[in-house]
Amino acid sequence: MIETRNLVKAVDTSEGVLTILKGINIRIEAGESVAIVGASGSGKSTLLGLMAGLDGASSGEIILDEHVLSELDEEQRAILRGQVVGFVFQSFQLLPSLTALENVMLPIELKGDPQAREKASNLLDRVGLAERWHHYPNQLSGGEQQRVAIARAFATEARVLFADEPTGNLDTATGSKVVDLLFELNREFSTTLILVTHDERLAARCDRQVRLVAGEVVDAEQTEEAVSA
Amino acid sequence: MPESSSAKLTDSKPLSNLFALALRLLWRDWQGGELRLLFVALVMAVTSVTGIALFTDRLEKALLLESANMLAADRIVSGRGDLPREVIEEGQARGLRTAEIISFASMAFSNSGNMLVSAKAVTDAYPLRGDVIIADEPFVRGRPVQTGPPPGEVWLESRALPALEIDVGDTIFVGEAELNVSQIIIAEPDRTGGSMMDSAGPRLMLHMDDLEQTNVVQLGSRVSYRYLFAADTIEELDSFEEWFRAREEWRGRYYMRDIREESEEVAEALERAESFLLLGSLFAVLLAGVAIALTAKRYSERHYDYVAILKTFGCTSGQISFIYLTIQLVLATGAVVVGWFLGWLVHRIILVFLESLLLVSLPQPDLQPYVVGALTAFICLLAFALPPLLALRETPPLRVLRKDMSQQKIGANVLYVFGILGTIFLVYWYSQDFELTAILVVSVSAIAIFLSLISYFFLRSSGSAGMKAGSAWLLAMTAARRRRKQNVLQVMVFSVTIMSLLILTLLRTDLIEEWQAQLPENTPNHFMMNITQGQIEGIENFFAENGIEGNQFYPLISARVTRINGDIPEPGDEEQVSVGGGTLTENAQLDDVDLDEGVADTLTTPQTDAPPVNTEEATTGGRRVRGGLSRRQVTWAEELPNDNLVTDGDWWGVESEPGYVSIEQEYAGWLGLQIGDRLEFEVNQQVVTAEVSSFRSVRWDNMQPNFFIIFSPGTIDHIGATFLSTALMEQEQKILLNDLIRLFPTMVIIEIDELIEQIQTIIAQVTSAIELISILVLLCGALVLLACVNASLDERFHENAILRTLGAGRKLILTSLLIEFASIGLVAGLIATIGAEASVYYLQEEVFEQEFALHYWVWIAGPLLGMLIIAGLGVNSTRKVVNISPLNVLRRVI
Fold first, then answer.
1. What ipTM was estimated for this complex?
2. Which residues of A touch B317 (CB under 8 A)?
């Protein structure tokens, strides 16, 4: 379960304080899939980063897997991420010097699981890259790299999966296949999925959508008003 | 409300997994070439330090050993008259090995001939160091023995046999003793380290027990006594020396010396070589340090994304540090092992080509050079590589979502502070010299500020916007200005690197040139003294007939300054002055004697037993202290002697008039003389006055006759003098010495050929060492340049990929890169030249005690080389910018 309470994120800029998120309240139940949608600059990725414990909020609270993130320092948040969270990024974020298999093995190994190789190879089979284990990221296409990233995200059997524009760097057909895979594995592993996207079709596949406009959550009707205004 | 206890969050990642991950990252980065430059830089640091330390360690030991062989001992005690037994008893009580020598000039008689010989009576333990080389017949290669002749026997030098018309096995008389000639002396360790009595003729060595029987040594005889001491450790010797020096009543009467005081040429060459090697290894390490810093910085920049991803997987900052520390330590360990091996190889290479020159087998090095090498690697890593790598721990994990986020907490200044502290530590550690460290730190800081200001202004933007992508020239210039900050750093690094290389090259060239000039091929190796006016023509004819290269004859007479401008100088006013530099048979020593000691003693050298005039010398550690009012051996000459330069006033020249005197400038300083002063001298109990017409600088270390005081012809000629000259005799001509002495029996010949050869050998050795060190430093410099060019590669790749995407051609980009690098190189070269000349000026004046002169060729070569090297390296490294598809570059697949 993830919950945000009156979450605010403000940053100092040369032109004064810029408030990116203005009192966000969201509750996402375990196993739920939620799409955070909104225009560019609406604060989607910032919200995702805060909920995943990658950054600290200016005020308000985030509760992730029963931990109040604001009460944790970066070291503790890192441990929590390692235990609870998985990620899929728009730019894949594979380590270029590791093979596909090693990239998937990495988070498993970090947890100290002796079955890392076996689990990683199974997952690579599962995402259809059985023949490409020993390829390096630069030898894989964008779609293949994102499939490796998805395999890596599920490798540690994380309870919550954060995906930031998972199809943003892919063409429509490839993106569609990657999304199918993501939801398939999500169901299979009963993961809580929180994804940020512009893609309405991808958002529609989630159980629920949270729409951000200028750093605030709006419901569907408000969104239409805001868009038409 | 959830439980918010952070205590529940415990990290379960085992260290072994992190270690394995670190090794895997290391292996991958190694394969990807990312770590190679860092590794090579570390290896270079370890190689140069270990190699140089091993070499200097062994060379120093060898030279000390060889030098000790020149003395046949580690320490010698000598003095006027018989030596106190207490000295040798104390040495023995302390467990030192001891021997005794008594030398004297004597006639040896055979049934058919006689000749003046340098006799030397030795005890059983002689020699304590080195070997006496003996043979069964004259003029052959001999075999080494560690003993002198047994009682009843004498050993003779080869050329004495034809003169005495005897063979091995015959008997000769030395005084009243009849002794059997049993062996021929081919060489003896302390042949060049003896006194006047050791240079009077061919050597005759006998056992101490036979001395009494000769009845030669009697009250009033001119005899030189020496005690020899040797020990296994320096500490024993130092402690013994301390005991000896504490005896106030012996000061000025008895002297303890080691090799450093025996031959200043050797000591000076060794000291300069050590200074140079130290400087060389310091440059090598610092350059390697800069290369390490640059490569580590680039490596860490390329690892921001790695770290951000690892952090999203739950790695804590501590674990990130652990991973990168592991990578560095494993890398450093590998570099240390490779560096040790290469360092060992480097010192082996030096030794292989020096083997023929080294007269002794080298002692094995101890482990210290390896420890120094390893420590250097880890200190370099700590100071130069770890700060940027440890800064990685501060990478925010949010960077996975926002590329523009980078680690900010440890600023560039902190990294510089680490580097600077590391540098200071290394300089101090190697030099163990606080003053040198302080001077270096202040001057390097000043140079750095100066360089950065110059570079900054040179590259200052004209304020125009855009990339000026229309022409290669404008593109390059705007690129240089846009990257101004990085370029200032680059120019600084390039400048300092080129500067280091120039400094070393200039010092090396000047040092070697000076050494070669000091003892050129045709340096005379025999001094002849006590020659009368009437003998000069005969000697010249003898030389001409036998193809011997003779030199000018200098009149020699003893004189003392009694009045300056009519005033009697008070001895109390006389300052105690120390003089470094030349020794040996140069006339500095010729001056340092009392008139009543006779002409033979004018050859007083530091090797002799006769104490210097000023007794303070004994306690000043090899530096001779002279009094300005002492007796001097003076001369008169029409022409200015070689290696003399008039520093003030005028030389009288061909149309000279009597009544003038030219004074060596330092000596003039001691007496506070001015040009035009009238000096009164006492010469052979006659009073002579002369006006000071010039001051001269004299090169004391050229092994030529040199004088403090030279009169104009006609001033003291009437008083009567003997003459001194020098000659170069090859080994095969030495037998002619017998004829020469027979023809001119009053003449005294001093043989210094072995000494000159020994000095030339040592100079050749250190020259080769210096050449090799220069090459090592050059390699380190190349490494820094490469690292520095590579440091800006990523940005250049990216920028040029965009330019190419926008349609810029290969030629435009390559030309623009060439121009940009060439201009940076030109500026760096110019700055380096200015810095190098300034540094060489300081080093030559303060450290190497050389005369400084501007090196004009450097002003052209420096900027030109800078331009060529930087342009070459830069274009070569960035050439693939135009060979990789822009898409790949933009996808960061490089």
1. 0.86
2. 74-75, 78
